[in-house]
Design goal:
The chain is mostly beta strands. It has 2 domains: 4-106, Nucleic acid-binding proteins (OB fold (Dihydrolipoamide Acetyltransferase, E2P)), CATH 2.40.50.140; 108-163, no CATH class. It has one helix at residues 59-67; strands at residues 4-12, 17-21, 24-38, 44-57, 73-86, 92-105, 110-113, 124-127. The strands form 2 sheets. Strands 1-3-4-6-5 form a 5-stranded mixed barrel. It has a two-stranded antiparallel ribbon with strand order 7-8. A hairpin with a 2-residue loop joins β2 and β3 (24-38). It is globular. Keywords: DNA-binding. Residues 118-172 are annotated as: Disordered. GO terms for molecular function: DNA binding.
Length: 172
């Protein structure tokens, strides 16, 4: 089977719905990605919109359920496919769905504190400029470090200029 990768940047437009399928948990929500462009007079004009249903499975479903809600700006990466169904009138329809491999807050709009699965608390994202939010850069980002005995930081590689603050994936 061919899998088509897709990255969608947009806002969650439905309340995430949690359900169980067999032994697995799934979170399902819709994301809208809206294009806009600047006109000749400098004002903004609405462009096309993409609406996609996102399905998150396993640990990703847990992280999304604990961290994100309707209205949040997100970046979603996954495999896209079409789902066909019949509507109430019996008309055959199809919709685009995305089986997510990663979902996170859009950090161009939020400052996020990252917590690993199993740590107390919930990952939180604060909009830039909101109370508690800031736009001061790396010093404003508080990232959890891996507590391995050897002091390593999981998949994060040390490089020139790295300090104790490292961005970790939400699903780490």
């Amino acid at each position: 089977m061919f899998e088509t990768p897709l990255t969608v940047i947009g806002r969650i437009v439905t309340d995430p719905q949690r359900r169980r399928v067999g032994e697995q948990e799934v979170m399902k929500f819709r994301v809208a990605s809206n294009a806009r462009r600047r006109t000749g007079d400098g004002s903004w004009e609405a462009g096309n919109s993409l609406f996609v249903t996102v399905n998150c499975w396993g640990k990703l479903a847990t992280g999304v359920g604990a961290s994100l809600a309707k209205g949040d700006a997100v970046i979603v990466v996954g495999q896209v496919y079409t789902s066909e169904y019949e509507d109430r009138e019996g008309v055959r329809r199809s919709s685009m769905e995305l089986r997510a491999s990663a979902v996170g807050p859009d950090l161009s709009r939020y400052i996020a504190k990252i917590e690993k699965h199993g740590q107390p608390g919930v990952a939180a994202a604060t909009p830039v400029g909101a109370p508690g939010g800031t736009s001061e850069g790396a010093d404003a980002v508080d990232c959890a470090e891996d507590d391995r005995a050897d002091g390593s930081h999981g998949d994060v590689q040390d490089g020139p200029g790295d300090d104790a603050r490292r961005a970790l994936p939400l699903s780490a």
